[in-house]
Every structure is written in structure tokens, then in C-alpha cells.
Design a protein that fits this description.
Elements: E1 12-13, H1 19-28, H2 35-45, H3 59-68, E2 69-70, E3 75-81, E4 87-92, E5 98-106, E6 109-113, E7 117-119, E8 134-137, H4 140-154, E9 167-170, H5 180-191, E10 203-207, H6 211-220, E11 224-228, H7 234-240, H8 249-262, E12 269-275, H9 283-292, E13 298-304, H10 318-330, E14 335-337, H11 362-378, H12 385-388
Parallel strand pairs: 1-2, 6-9, 9-10, 10-11, 11-12, 12-13, 13-14
Antiparallel strand pairs: 3-4, 4-5, 5-6, 7-8
Helix pairs in contact: 1-2, 4-5, 6-8, 9-10
The site of iron/sulfur cluster has 12 residues, from loops.
């Protein structure tokens, strides 16, 4: 059963229902199942939240719906516009919890980066979201609500139904596979023609490597897969992505190979690799990466680190980034360098912070570490980078 929104009333929020669930809902009201299709178009295509505006629905049914159902997106606290066209929404989920959603236009493509949890329990050492601790999973209507808000801000799709949002990445705040049921259900709505009609190759789930859930995912839904890799050996990945201690690279790579084997078309896994100066950007790391991925059909997305206060990491210079890319390309990997977008509104990758009523105490520990580091540096002491990161609490 899907988790429901924390702030919902007793009414059913139609944003969170798949086509099947919507049809069942109308049947339970004694209505024809096709009514579900009409309503989904009003909700997801036209962004309507008032049943009275649904002109092809009879007055009686509109009244009945208003009594038992609602179309309620999460409250938007702020909408930021970047100079480069990137937009960011700060979404208020109540009780002091906020998540962020980012839209990145690129020619005819528009990618929406969607959050799945308030904070994150996994505490990757270079990630500002992880430093905020963890509060809770998002419900289906809160995940779809981010899409609904963004779609509405562009107005109903013009030009014969061409939508502004062509691509979606489950890559915002949180580890999507740790909110499995709600994320899978939300992605069904994203793929549905009566939902957001996003093609499977344009809908990407990004995981830090929750290996058992990766296998479950393949059996439930066909979407593109990205892995937050960030290190080419277990010793370094244990430090940067602590879940690696539980599911090391051998298990992660096996899960990636299975993904490629399971689907009959030409699949590749996108390997996300945040480059941090002097940490994981050396020539030997590129060599190890080539060896690690040699039998995993993949493309590599290099992401120059986006600094945040007291992270302890730095972005490598352009020459180092290019040299790393060149080594991977020479080995035959399609390797891109992600252009930083939305820098001026803190919407770049790894900069999403929202607001988390942390129940892991990690945010407080992180603040204490920062204070300790500041005090020590005043005394002229140097603290190595790995001592600055806070480790997973749960
Ligand atoms: S990188 Fe992803 S999995 Fe790791 S702490 Fe940040 S949000 Fe969580």
C-alpha cells in the first residue's frame, strides 16, 4: 500500500493514483471506468485542480468527486529562475520539511530532477543532501506533485501536445530505491500516456547501489538506470558512498550487468562520477574505472564537484577533468562532462538541500564537525578530508 501524504485530508488525492487505481476508484463510485481517463487528462495534462473546470464531466459527478476526492499539489514556497533558464522549486511538505525540484532546459529537451525523500539516510560524504539527515519518504502524490507543479508553471502543453518536460530523473533529494513502492508507482504515472507520457529511455532512476532493490526494480518497471558510482575501488567508495560497505562493487556491477541482460534492446547503465580534486580524479582512478567497467555496458557522466560550505572537497581544474575524460574515451567509453547548470540558484547537482526535520541527528553532528574544524584551523591544525565527513548513523 502506498504511503499517503502527511498533510492530506480524508479525501483521496487523485495526483497519486495510477490509471488502474483511478479506474478502480471510479468503479467504486458506480461510474464507468473510462471516466478515469477523462479525469487523468484534466489533472496531468491541463493541470486542473477544480472539478468544476472539467467541462466534459456532468454536474452530478463533479459534485460527487468534490465530496470524496481532491487534486492537491504540495505548496510551493519559492520558485527560482536561473540566468541559464534553469528553474528550481522549493516545495513545502509541512511540519518543517521541504524538498527541491529542478527543471533544466536544453534545446528541445527539458529535464526535471525530482526528489523522493525528505533528506537522505545514506550520507555520501560529498553530498549536501546527506548532511541534512533524514526525515521521511515522500508519498506518491508528493512525488507526482513536483511534476504537476512544474508542468502547471508552463501551462497546458501547446503545439499539439508537445510538453516542456521531456525527461525525468529520479535524482533529487533521497535514495529512490529506499522509497521503493512509492517511487515505482509514481514512475508508472510518469510513463503513462494519460499521465506525463515520458518514454522509458527518458525516465531515469538513479541509485547509489541498493543492490537487492535494483533486482526488484527490473521485475517491476522498465526505466533507464543510472548509478552514483564516484569511485573505482571499494576502499575509496567505502569512504565516499558508505552503502558500498554493505553492497560492494562486485555486487553492484553484477546488478548492473543483469539490468543490461534483462532488457532486449541496447541498454547501457549511466555511471555518475563526481570528480573531486585529488580524491578520485587521478590517472590511476581512470585506469581502475576502465578495468571495473570493461564488461558492464555503460556510459560515463563526469560531474565536476559543486562546492558547498565546509564540504572539505574541491572541484578539479579543467585540465584534470579533460585528462580524466580522455582516458575513458580512449578506452572506448562514451564519456560526457556534465555542464553545471543553475549554479546561481543552488540548483546544481549535489546542491539540493531543502529543509529536513532530521531524525537521524546527522545534521547536528555535521554542524559540530564544522565547528570543530573551524576551531582547529584557528589553532593552525589541518584535518584530512576523510575525517571531516560524518558517517551514517542508522
Ligand atoms: S548522493 Fe544520493 S544517496 Fe548519497 S547522500 Fe546524497 S542523496 Fe543520498
Amino acid at each position: 500500500m502506498n504511503q499517503v501524504s502527511q498533510k492530506s485530508t480524508n479525501k483521496i488525492n487523485l495526483l497519486g493514483l495510477t490509471r488502474q487505481q483511478m479506474e478502480d476508484f471510479f468503479e467504486s463510485l458506480g461510474e464507468k471506468r473510462f471516466r478515469a481517463h477523462q479525469i487523468m487528462k484534466w489533472v496531468h495534462f491541463f493541470g486542473v485542480d477544480d472539478f468544476e473546470a472539467m467541462t466534459n464531466i456532468g454536474k452530478g459527478l463533479r459534485g460527487k468527486l468534490a465530496e470524496v476526492a481532491e487534486i492537491k499539489g504540495p505548496a510551493v514556497e519559492l520558485e527560482h529562475f536561473s540566468n541559464d533558464g534553469t528553474r528550481k522549486w522549493v516545495v513545502d511538505l509541512g511540519q518543517g520539511n521541504k524538498v527541491e525540484t529542478v527543471f533544466i532546459p536544453d534545446g528541445k529537451r527539458g529535464t526535471l530532477c525530482v526528489s523522493s525523500q525528505v533528506g537522505c539516510a545514506l550520507d555520501c560524504s560529498f553530498c549536501s543532501t546527506g548532511k541534512q539527515g533524514f526525515q521521511r519518504d515522500l508519498s506518491v502524490d508528493e512525488i507526482i506533485g513536483q511534476l504537476w507543479i512544474a508542468q502547471r508553471s508552463f501551462g497546458a502543453p501547446e503545439n499539439h501536445g508537445i510538453r516542456n518536460i521531456t525527461n525525468i530523473v529520479m535524482m533529487g533529494m533521497g535514495e529512490p530505491l529506499l522509497n521503493f513502492e512509492n517511487v515505482v508507482t509514481a514512475m508508472e504515472i510518469m510513463k503513462d500516456d494519460l499521465g506525463y507520457g515520458v518514454a522509458k529511455k527518458r525516465l531515469t532512476l538513479s541509485t547509489s547501489g541498493v543492490v537487492p532493490k535494483m533486482y526488484e526494480l527490473y521485475d517491476r518497471i522498465d526505466v533507464a538506470l543510472a548509478v552514483s558510482l564516484h569511485a573505482p575501488n571499494d576502499e575509496l567508495r567505502d569512504q565516499l558512498v558508505p552503502i558500498n560497505k554493505k553492497y560492494p562493487l562486485s555486487a553492484l556491477m553484477a546488478a548492473c550487468r543483469r539490468y543490461v541482460d534483462q532488457f532486449p534492446d541496447t541498454r547501457r547503465v549511466t555511471m555518475e562520477y563526481v570528480l573531486m580534486d585529488g580524491v578520485n580524479d587521478k590517472y590511476e582512478h581512470a585506469e581502475q574505472l576502465v578495468a571495473l567497467l570493461q564488461d558492464v555496458p555503460s556510459k560515463i557522466n563526469l560531474i565536476p564537484f559543486n562546492p558547498f560550505p565546509s564540504s572539505g572537497y574541491k572541484r578539479p581544474n579543467g585540465m584534470r577533468i579533460k585528462a580524466f575524460q580522455d582516458r575513458l574515451i580512449k578506452a572506448g567509453f562514451v564519456t560526457t562532462i556534465r555542464t553545471t547548470r543553475g549554479d546561481d540558484i543552488d540548483a546544481a547537482c549535489g546542491q539540493l538541500v531543502g529543509q529536513v526535520q532530521d531524525r537521524t541527528r546527522r545534521a547536528a553532528q555535521w554542524q559540530a564537525k564544522i565547528a570543530e574544524k573551524a576551531a582547529n584551523s584557528q589553532k593552525g591544525k589541518q584535518i584530512p578530508v576523510q575525517q571531516v565527513s560524518v558517517h551514517k548513523q542508522s
